[in-house]
């Protein structure tokens, strides 16, 4: 019986950020997971980068005032609001009612995404594929070794299926 419920009511996590690729992934998710089943829950997950470690004097001897620190925190909040508003505009254009939850994490994206997916017991994780244009085409192996890939890491470490949606120009 529980297996049947899982098939009809799924929790789908979509990792969103400032990129067009993440909004493409959200659109793909809506078309493929929500067109026939409005019992699914869409979880929009945004991960803020970890705050910089700073003290009143940094390594170069510069002082960060409380105003600068507050401005950095304000910028982070504005970024969260901007991304969530963009995501909302994508799913509001969808023709059926969707159950939506918003989750904002802070830290290394790969670790936060995997942690949230596990905590929520998500059925599927959907992510956009971030291309790096010239860098990706010429130095893909080097970039992956040096920088890593959030989507690759998540695909290897979460327990649920992971869908990595390519940007239409990458297909």
Automatic annotation (TrEMBL):
InterPro entries: Rossmann-like_a/b/a_fold (IPR014729), Universal_stress_UspA (IPR006015), UspA (IPR006016). Pfam families: Usp. Signal peptide: none annotated. Residues 10-166 form the UspA domain. SUPFAM superfamilies: Adenine nucleotide alpha hydrolases-like. PANTHER family: ADENINE NUCLEOTIDE ALPHA HYDROLASES-LIKE SUPERFAMILY PROTEIN (PTHR31964:SF126). This is UspA domain-containing protein. It comes from Dipteronia dyeriana.
């Amino acid at each position: 019986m529980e297996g049947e419920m899982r098939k009809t009511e799924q929790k789908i996590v979509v990792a969103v950020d400032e990129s067009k690729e993440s909004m493409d992934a959200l659109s793909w998710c809506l078309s493929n997971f929500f067109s026939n089943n409005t019992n699914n829950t869409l979880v929009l997950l945004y991960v803020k980068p970890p705050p910089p470690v700073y003290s009143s004097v940094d390594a170069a001897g510069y002082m960060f005032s409380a105003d600068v620190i507050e401005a950095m925190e304000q910028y982070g909040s504005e970024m969260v609001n901007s991304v969530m508003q963009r995501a909302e505009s994508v799913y509001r254009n969808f023709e059926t009612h969707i159950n939506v939850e918003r989750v904002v994490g802070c830290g290394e994206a790969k670790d936060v995404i995997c942690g949230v997916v596990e905590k929520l017991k998500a059925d599927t994780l959907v992510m956009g594929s971030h291309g790096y244009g010239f860098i990706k085409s010429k130095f893909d192996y080097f970039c992956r070794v040096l920088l890593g890939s959030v989507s690759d890491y998540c695909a290897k470490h979460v327990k649920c299926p992971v869908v990595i949606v390519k940007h239409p120009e990458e297909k």
